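Hi R.,

As promised on Friday, here is the backbone we talked about, encoded as structure tokens. Could you run it through your design pipeline when you get a chance and send me back a sequence?
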């Protein structure tokens, strides 16, 4: 004798584990156990045909292909560029090692185009609230770290500007340039932030274990060199795969986009300062 159940999603009466109208699964006590969640996570991370791993592989091994598939309508086998961006952003949000897209108070007040204005604003704030620079720096940088990670969507939109300007003849849809920008920022999150953060933590741990100075291995010049190299690889390959450019065309476009993207990163950091400052 079959027991009837009412579907929680569509209200259909059905027998068995799955609703024959909408496909919703009937929840059983075992589905609510902690072991069910653990096994689900394990299965998701180890499944060879899972969308996540397939998407990560295509982003890292064949830049631009995910964007091309998305614009062509081939979306069932992969996560969308927007989905993988927010997943990478979530992981980045949880990493404490260093802040690729953040800027220290010193950088904001001394090394960027708006630094003179920023320094005047900070000095006025210190005088008004009777704070010393060390107290303000601690407060500012904590808020800036939080804001930087929440503001990455703005960086995607800024990144799409030089990409679209350089490739406007290759892709008729603005959404195409934005899609490629999502993939570009995701690549930077995965490689130049998450992977490098993990590598940096390992280097620091080993250096401390052998009583060496980790600063000898970890410095801004090294990270800038690595970042420029990985971005050139991604953008050159992306030009080939997404925009169907020649080798020569991909080289100059990738070089121009690196300069444009770094300019947008500077604009993002300026925007970050003013938003962070007014949120204090």
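Update: got your reply. Pasting your designed sequence below so it's all in one thread:
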């Amino acid at each position: 004798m079959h027991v009837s159940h009412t579907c929680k999603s569509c209200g259909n009466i059905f027998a068995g584990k799955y609703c024959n109208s909408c496909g919703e699964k009937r929840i059983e006590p075992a589905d609510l156990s902690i072991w069910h969640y653990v096994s689900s996570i394990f299965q998701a991370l180890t499944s060879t045909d899972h969308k996540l791993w397939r998407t990560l592989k295509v982003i890292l091994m064949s830049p631009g292909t995910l964007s091309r598939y998305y614009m062509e309508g081939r979306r069932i086998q992969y996560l969308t560029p927007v989905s993988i961006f927010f997943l990478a952003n979530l992981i980045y949000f949880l990493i404490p090692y260093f802040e690729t897209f953040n800027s220290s108070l010193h950088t904001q007040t001394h090394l960027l185009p708006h630094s003179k204005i920023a320094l005047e604003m900070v000095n006025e704030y210190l005088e008004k609230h009777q704070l010393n620079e060390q107290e303000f720096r601690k407060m500012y940088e904590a808020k800036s770290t939080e804001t930087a990670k929440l503001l990455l969507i703005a960086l995607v939109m800024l990144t799409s500007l030089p990409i679209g300007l350089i490739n406007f003849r290759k892709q008729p849809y603005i959404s195409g340039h934005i899609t490629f920008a999502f993939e570009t920022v995701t690549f930077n999150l995965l490689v130049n932030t998450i992977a490098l953060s993990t590598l940096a933590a390992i280097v620091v741990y080993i250096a401390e274990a052998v009583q060496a100075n980790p600063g000898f291995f970890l410095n801004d010049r090294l990270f800038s060199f690595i970042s420029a190299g990985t971005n050139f690889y991604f953008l050159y390959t992306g030009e080939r795969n997404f925009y169907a450019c020649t080798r020569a065309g991909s080289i100059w476009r990738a070089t121009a986009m690196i300069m444009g993207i770094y300019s947008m990163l500077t604009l993002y950091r300026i925007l970050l300062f003013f938003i962070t400052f007014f949120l204090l």
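One thing I noticed while checking it: Residues 93 and 149 are 6 Å apart (CA to CA).

Thanks again,
M.
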